[in-house]
Write a structure and sequence with these properties.
Blueprint: H1 7-17, H2 20-35, E1 38-39, H3 47-51, E2 59-63, H4 88-101, H5 112-115, E3 119-123, E4 128-129, H6 141-155, E5 160-164, H7 165-169, E6 181-185, H8 190-193, H9 203-213
Amino acid sequence: MNVDIHQSWKHYLKPEFEKPYFKNLVEFVKSEYRNHSCYPKGSEIFNAFNHCTFDDVKVVIIGQDPYHGIGQANGLCFSVNDGIPHPPSLINIFKEIEQDLGIAYPKSGNLIPWADQGVLLLNATLTVRAHQAGSHQKKGWEQFTDTVIELISQEKQNVVFLLWGGFAKKKKKLINTALHSILESGHPSPLSANRGYWFGNKHFSKTNSLLQRVGESVIDWKLE
């Protein structure tokens, strides 16, 4: 696995790449990709960082694991490649955007246009073995992505963090709430959404209001 990450991130994360845990993680990921089908494809592992440079980060959305079905994952949390059916959580994200902003439900579930505007779509674990959810957890990815969250918290200001569900909410302790905004809700998964913990959170319009308040350009959540 080459750490094929945008220079703006490399500048800050280079010390992390030298640490023993990260070197062990690289060896583990290389072995997994050599011996098993894994996702996303190797060139897309750091896609979230390559489409959203450090300087551009305005919004952070935290996911847990890449999708583990064939052709789904593309390195951005909740996002799928063009032409892939939308997973249940993504369907509910788009339904909320439809209700919140009146934006028509999109054909593609590829969220790269959000990333290109400064939305860091960060999974806590960046790789997974095919059809085995959570198979690459607790191998070092979480330590790396926690460092990324802390880095953004320390080095930037006025970033909007969207914490959806119990797992993401645990990351709150890594964020300086005096410098950044946090919006929390239930997870968009059907289990949570159908219990009333997701729909109506208006996180997309609220995010844009928070960005406007600090003089930042808003995110165009429309994908077509």
